[in-house]
Amino acid sequence: MLTFEKIKKLAEEAGREHWRDFLANDQMPILDVCLNVRRAWMFFRNPNIQMPPEASLRKCALVLSDRGEVRFTADYYPDLNRCREYLQMSDHFEERGV
């Protein structure tokens, strides 16, 4: 299992790659706020990233397993209760061993 620091670094890297066309110079791709449910961590896109309407599918959250598996998923931020409910997908990681 990875440490939180490594998981967060992977989330930042995945965010930079996923939103690279929209990031300003040195703009952080994710917020400091994150959620953890069992084996999954959810990170949220920096809302200051300017994205055109046609890029609506890129407006997502990142979920990482404690083994480094990355998924892009629905983003219900700032409704953390709804995000936590959705993050129950950590069972998905458990079932697949990732």
N-to-C SSE string, H for helix and E for strand: HEEEEHH
Could you tell me the strand content as a percent range? Answer: 15-25%
Q: Helical percent range?
A: 25-40%
SS elements, strand count: 4
Itemize the secondary structure elements and their pairings.
Blueprint: H1 4-18, E1 30-37, E2 40-45, E3 61-65, E4 70-73, H2 80-86, H3 90-96
Antiparallel strand pairs: 1-2, 2-3, 3-4
Give a short synopsis of this structure.
With 98 residues, the protein is α+β, with helices and mostly antiparallel strands. It has helices spanning 4-18, 80-86, 90-96; strands spanning 30-37, 40-45, 61-65, 70-73. A four-stranded antiparallel β-sheet has the order 1-2-3-4, sandwiched between helices.
Explain what this protein looks like in three dimensions.
This protein has one domain (4-96). The radius of gyration is 13 Å and the shape is globular. The chain has helices at residues 4-18, 80-86, 90-96, and strands at 30-37, 40-45, 61-65, 70-73. The protein is an alpha+beta fold and 98 residues long. It has a four-stranded antiparallel β-sheet, with helices on both faces.
Primary descriptors:
23% strand, four-stranded antiparallel beta sheet, alpha+beta, single chain, 98 residues
